[in-house]
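Progress against Task 2.4 (sequence-to-structure conversion) is shown through the following example record, which the project officer requested during the mid-term review.
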Amino acid sequence: MYSEDYDGANAQERLGEDVWSKPVRAGKRTYFFDVKATKGNDYYLTITESKRKVDASGHFTYDKHKIFLYKEDFDKFSEGLQEVLEYIRTQCLGSQDSSSGETFTDVEFEEL
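Structure tokens generated for the chain above:
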């Protein structure tokens, strides 16, 4: 995985061909799950968080953060994500009042 600030990340993204995309709106943020293919037809995933902000002049701008996830990391990433989500569900959410009005969507990594 690489962050967008990594020098080679933007060059790597330009080489990638868009294969499939799934935007997910979540409150003030939108997450984009983009499947891309390299020239060698290897698939990778970019995950972008985009948050709309208002600048000093009143114009809208977007603050974006991106990570690149390559196929050799899919299994470890998925295992880690599932473990963290399970921890949050059992240790943190289990003790909250269910009347808070917040809902969570259960998304399996394989669905991305």
